Amino acid sequence: MLSLGARSATKTQILQSLGFNLTHGPESAIHQAFQHLLRSLRAPGKALDLRMGSVLFIKKELWLQKNFLDNVKRLYESKVFSTDFSSTSTAREKINSYVEKETKGKVVDLIQDLEPLTVMVLVNHIFFKAKWEKPFNPGYTRKSSPFLVGKRTTVKVPMMHQVEEFAFAVDPELNCSVLRMDYGGDTAAFFVLPGQGKMRQLEQALSARTLRKWSHLLQKRWLEVFIPKFSISASCDLETVLLKMGIRDAFDKNADFSGITKTDFLQLSKVAHKAVLDVSEEGTEAAAATATKLLVRSKDGPSHTVVRFDRPFLLLLINRATEAVLFLGKVENPTKF
Predict the structure, then answer these.
(1) Average pLDDT, whole number, for the chain?
(2) Which among 17, 9, 49, 23 has a CA at the least distance from the CA of 242?
(3) What is the average per-residue pLDDT within 251-267?
C-alpha cells in the first residue's frame, strides 16, 4: 500500500525488499494480485471468521493526491479517516480503539506513542477465528504437562491430546516433523517440530519452496497428538527489520512519497506490528495488526505414531486455496503471553 504513494528509489526499495522483481512485470500487476488475494481471503464462510482490512488516519490539513486515495480504496479496500493529530494522545486513542474493535478486542494498544509531527498512520489488521475439523476433547487435556524451554528448564502447560487421522510428514533433510491440522473452511495449521538443536536451521530454510515440499510429503496416518493449549502475543517495531531488508530511504531525508502528497515532505517514522494467537481444543483465535506511521518534517484405534509438541516449535496458519501464510510464529514458551 505504501509503495502506491512512493516514488523513485523509495518505491524501488520497498518493492524489491519484499521480493518483487519489477523487470518481470509491471508494478500494477503486483497491486492487482493483492486486490485479488484480499477478495479471495474475504470470501465469507460459515466455519471461518477471517476479517482483514486497511485504514489510513490522515491529518486534516494534509492535501492528498487523488490518485493515491482512489488506488488505496480500489485496490486495498482501505478506509480513510480525517484525523486531528494536534493532540497526539487523542489521535492515538482513536487509532487504538478502532483496531481493538476491528480485531474483537484481541489487539489492544497497537500504537504506544505518536510523535507530534505525525501526519498519517496506515494500519493493516487481520482477525482469524476457526474451528478444528477434528476438535480436541477438553476432558483429555492434561492440566499440567512439561514443556522444555532452554536446554534444561521446563514449564508446566495444559497439553491437549487426541488420537486421530492427520496429515503428517518427516523431513529428513531438515530433521523436522510436520503435522497439518485442518480447520473448517480452506485453512490449515502446520505445526513444525525440529529435532533437538535444529531450530535455527529450520528457520533459515523457511521458504515457499519448503512449504510446497512439506505439502507433497504429507500423508494421512493415525497419530497420537499432544499439543499445548496456549495464548501468545508478540509486538515488534519493524523499523530495524525493514532497514535490514533494504527499505532505507523511506525512513530518512531521501524519502520520496510525492505520490501521496506534493505539498509536504513525508518520511516513515514508525512501523508497529502486534499479533495475538490462541490455540485451544475447539480451534484457533488469532489477530494481528500492523501500523505504519508517516512523519512530516516540517484414544483406542489402529497402531499410531506419537507426536509430542513439548519443546519449541513453529506454527503456520495457511489458506490452502491461495497458499497465503496468514500467521507465522515460533512458540518458545506457551506460558508467556
Answers:
(1) 88
(2) 17
(3) 91
